[in-house]
Amino acid sequence: MNPVTERRIPRVGMVGGGQLSRMTAAPATALAIGFRVLATSADESAAQVVSDVVIGHHDDLDALLRLADGCDVVTFDHEHVPPAYLLELEASGVAVRPGPGALVHAQDKRTMREALAAAGAPTPRWTIVEGIGDLTRTGDYLGWPLVLKVSRGGYDGRGVWVVSSHQEAADILATTPLAADAAWLAEERVAFTRELAAQVARSPSGQAVAYPVVRTVQVDGMCSEVVAPCPGLSDERAMQAQELALGLAKDLDVTGMLAVELFDAPQGILVNELAMRPHNSGHWSIDGAVTSQFENHLRAVLDLPLGDPHPLAPWTVMVNVIGPRDADTLPPLQDAYRHVLARDPGVRVHLYGKDPRPGRKLGHVTVVGDNLDTLLARAHHAANYLMGVIDE
Ligand SMILES: Nc1ncnc2c1ncn2[C@@H]1O[C@H](COP(=O)(O)OP(=O)(O)O)[C@@H](O)[C@H]1O
Ligand SMILES: [Mg+2]
Predict the structure, then answer these.
(1) 224 Cα to the center of ligand 1, angstroms
(2) pLDDT digits (tens, 9 = 90+) for 225-280
(3) Over 70: is that where the pLDDT of 6 sits?
(4) Any idea of the CA torsion for 83, 158, 255, 351, to the nearest 10 degrees?
(5) Which residues pair with 68 in a beta bridge?
(6) Over the chain, what is the mean pLDDT?
C-alpha cells in the first residue's frame, strides 16, 4: 500500500485551463496536493501538463459539478463562473474559494467600484453611463479624455477604451454589444506616473501575507513588464498599498490570492481593479520569492499555513512573451532556446504551451539579481528574442 495515498491527499479543482492553472500545477506537485482542472479542451495550456482534467465549460453547471466531485476545494484561474453556479457548487458540499460573496467584486467592475467606495478606498472618479444620451453629463462630470469600460467580461484591456470626445464615446457605445447583465462604466483618465500592484494571500482562518508592492507596465492594456519591488517607492507608500490590499482582502472576505491593481498618481494611490486569483503581476514570485503566488494560492484555499512572500534578491524583473503580429516572424522554439539559454544561463523562461496568436500571452521570462538596469536589459532581450523582435 502506498503510504502517501493512504494518508488522504487534499484535492483542489481549478476552473479554467489557462496558464494560471498550468503554473499552479507545479507547487501542487511539489506539495503532493491533488490537482484537477476544468479545461475546455485537452490541448489547453494547463490540460497539457495536468493528469486529472475534466473537459467542459465554466458556464456549464454539470461540468462544474464533475470538477468538484471528489475535490475538497474549488478555485479559479478566471472570474467568469456565474454566481448562481458558485452557490450550487457550495450546496453540493465543496468549499468554493474565493467564495461567491467575494468573487462578485472581481466579476463586475461596477460592483467592485461600489464596494471600494463603501470601504473608503481611494479610486478614480467614476460613473455609470446609462446610454448615449447620458454622455454629455458623463463628459461634464469627468472631463475628456475619459476611460470607458464594460463592467463585465473584459480582460487584458479588452473592454477598455480611452476616448477623447463625445463622438468617439458615442461610436463605441453604438457599435459594442453589451451583455445583458453588464453596464457601461466611465472613469476619469488618471495621469498616473506608474502602475503598481499589491498582492496578498489570505486564508479562511484569517492568516494573511503581503508580497512586496511591484511596478507594472501595461502596453495596449496588457501587462508587459513587472519589477519587484517597485523602484523608488517610498516605504510609506509601499506600506499604504500593502495595508490597503490586506484591508480589502479582509473586508471582502477574500480567500486565496488577491491582486490590487493601483495607479501611483500625483493625488496619491488609487485602486484600479481587483483580481481574486494568481495574477500576472505576481509571476515574478515563482523565481524571485521564497514562496510563489501559485503556492500561496493553494496553501490559502486549503487553509494551510502561508509561505514566506519575501524576495530572494534585491530585484526581480519579469517580462511577458506576447504573440507578435505575424507568427511567421517567430523563430523555431529549439533555435530560440539555444540562443536565449546559452546567452544568459541566469534567465528563467516560462512558456505556456499556447499557439502563437497576435497579442496573446505566450509566456514570460524572469531574472533575479542586484543591478536593476542589467536585469531589465537581460529580461527584455530574452523576451524580444522569443517574440522574434530581434534575432541576435
Ligand atoms: N481610469 C484610468 N485612467 C488611466 N488609465 C486607465 C484607467 N483605467 C484603466 N486604465 C489603463 O488600462 C489598463 C486596463 O484597464 P483595467 O481596468 O485594468 O482592465 P482589464 O480588466 O482589462 O485589466 C490599466 O492597466 C491602465 O493601464
Ligand atoms: Mg487590469
Answers:
(1) 13
(2) 999 999 999 999 999 999 999 999 999 999 999 999 999 999 999 999 999 999 99
(3) no
(4) 120
(5) none
(6) 96
Pocket perturbation via mutation, ligand 1, pick of 196, 272, 281 by most ligand atoms within 8 A of CB: 272
C-alpha cell at 158: 479588452
> Rounded CA gap, 68 and 192, in Å?
42
What domains are defined for the chain? 3-96 (3.40.50.20), 125-188 (3.30.1490.20), 194-386 (3.30.470.20)
pLDDT tens, position by position, 160-171? 999 999 999 999
Distance 390 CA to ligand 1 centre (A): 29
**Phi-psi category of residue 314: left, alpha or beta, with phi > 0 → left and psi -120 to 50 → alpha:** alpha
Extract long-range pairs of 92-98: CB within 8 Å, 24+ residues apart: 92/65, 92/68, 94/13, 94/68, 95/204, 95/301, 97/73, 97/204, 97/255, 97/256, 97/300, 97/301, 98/253, 98/254, 98/255, 98/256, 98/276
Q: Could you say which ligand is closest to the alpha carbon of residue 157? A: 1
